[in-house]
Amino acid sequence: MAHREQSKIILYLEYIPVFLLYKFVRLLPLHAAYWLSAVLFRIFFALDRKHRVRTIQHLMHAKVAPDRRRAVAMAKECFRQFSMLLVEIFKGDQMTRPDSVRIVGNLELAAKCGAFGEERRVYKNVIIVTAHYGNWEIAGGFWVRCAHTPMLSVMRSFTNPYVGELILRNRRAPGHELVDKVGGFRAAYRALKQGKSLALLVDQHANHTEGVETTFFGQPCRTHASAALLHLKTGVPLIPEVTRRAGNNFNFEFVVGDPIEYEPTGDQDKDVKAVTQIITSRLEKLIAEKPEQWLWTHRRWLNINRKSR
Q: What is the pLDDT of residue 2?
């Protein structure tokens, strides 16, 4: 009991400064909040050697940056972009406008999903496969409002539930349900069978039991197989997507990639691997357009900054 009480105290001690920052940021105009956050993250960039070095290494490893000088400049911009995300999370309900997000990319596909009116809808529901890119937090809620389809998003639970509740406060929206990753596959399958759409973040490292080996920016990685399995089981189309930040006025582009509708061969292992690689390649293509908005600090690859494969 004493240990649990001590843990609760620690969680609250972690939560209090985040809560105070949250309240302070909400009092500031958007540009002032962006400026403050950028200053803080410039300090983090200078002091946090581990994540600074890792980001630079990853940009060069993926050959996105041609040399170290360019990699350092891109890493600084990556940190700045992430600082903007935190402001947007805190101020989301204050800043969202009907025209905050516009759809770009495959507009024909967006129309088939009902984004421009029911008369052009072809797909009842879809599986959106997305990445930790730009402002991924607003994607699910936007799609619910845009395509008029209820959606389930699968998420990883926060280590600190109090901080998690603060972050998720502005992520929830009518028709947009959030479910924990633990046990999430069954909930996702059930939602698809009920006609709901699904949003999955599929761009981070997966362990041996959850993923298959793929190639991302020319380097080996292991990617979560759940999206491929759900597609093969239900036939619901996969839609690669990233939510790209457009300037500094709380404007975003919901970038729709080409759909994935795979015809199973009967060899499930082969099919899962093939579909997962297609997903990974399609997201890579979208990320490569403006790579600074992706979360390059993550240990994505099997052959760098990872002790075991």
A: 44
What DSSP designation does 293 have? G
Euclidean distance between CA atoms 141 and 173, whole angstroms: 6
| pLDDT band of 178, cuts 50, 70, 90 | confident
How far apart are the C-alpha atoms of 171 and 257, rounded to whole Å? Answer: 23
| Separation CA 94–CA 96 (nearest Å) | 6
Q: Compute and round to an integer the Cα radius of gyration of the chain.
A: 20
Higher pLDDT, 296 or 140: 296
CA–CA separation, 263 vs 270, rounded Å?
A: 12
Do 219 and 301 touch, CB atoms closer than 8 A? yes
* Per-domain residue ranges of the chain: 2-293
Return the exposure string of 198-230: e unless at least 16 CB atoms fall within 10 Å of the residue's CB, then b.
bbbbbbbbbeeeebbebebbeeebbbbbbbbbb
* Coil, helix or strand at residue 93: helix
Q: Which two tokens stand for residue 153?
A: 């998003």
User: Whose structure tokens read 């009842």?
Assistant: 124
Strand partners, 127: 198, 238
Runs of H (alpha helix) within the chain: 2-27, 30-47, 49-61, 68-95, 107-112, 139-147, 161-168, 184-193, 226-234, 268-289
**Tokens 């690669």 appear where?**
240
CB 215 within 8 A of CB 277: yes
Question: pLDDT-derived band of residue 3, with 50, 70 and 90 as boundaries?
Answer: very low
